Task: inverse folding
């Protein structure tokens, strides 16, 4: 029975990693399309990406739970430890190579997500500035209060004065 466990475990890991890699690749592709949309003057089509993005994230989360279940007591191990476990399960290096490829794609996803978040924040700031102008308010300035916390103050004036 031990030999059937040892021969099936690499196959289980291969299937899980393959599922994770496919989901991560889909997420990376969605994030790339999201970036392209966010660079446009009006982000038309951004809402249409949300279900696809959520599906990729859900697939990643499901496969991650499955991987942690399959790893058992190594579920909280560092990425390097998991890679070592993959190398021990598969002497050919295929599992460890797939794990490294997955880690690379996930790093790309993280970078693209941060970039997209920065674009969203910049756009939000532009909208806030435009609204302040329309309201006749000067842009808020930040100062520090006696407690060291940032305090924002805005001076209002009428749109006629602007």
Result:
């Amino acid at each position: 029975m031990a030999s059937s466990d040892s021969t099936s475990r690499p196959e289980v890991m291969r299937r899980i990693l393959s599922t994770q890699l496919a989901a991560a690749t889909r997420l990376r592709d969605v994030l790339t399309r999201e970036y392209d949309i966010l660079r446009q003057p009006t982000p038309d089509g951004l809402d249409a990406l949300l279900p696809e993005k959520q599906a990729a994230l859900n697939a990643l989360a499901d496969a991650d739970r499955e991987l942690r279940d399959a790893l058992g007591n190594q579920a909280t191990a560092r990425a390097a430890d998991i890679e070592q476990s993959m190398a021990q399960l598969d002497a050919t290096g295929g599992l460890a190579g797939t794990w490294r490829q997955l880690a690379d794609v996930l790093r790309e996803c993280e970078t693209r997500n941060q970039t997209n978040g920065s674009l969203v924040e910049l756009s939000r700031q532009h909208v806030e500035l435009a609204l302040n102008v329309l309201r006749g308010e000067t842009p808020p300035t930040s100062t520090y209060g006696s407690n060291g916390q940032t305090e924002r103050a805005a001076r209002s004036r009428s749109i006629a004065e602007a």
About this structure: The mean pLDDT is 81. The helical segments are 2-38, 46-71, 79-89, 94-135. The chain is about 70% helix and 5% strand.
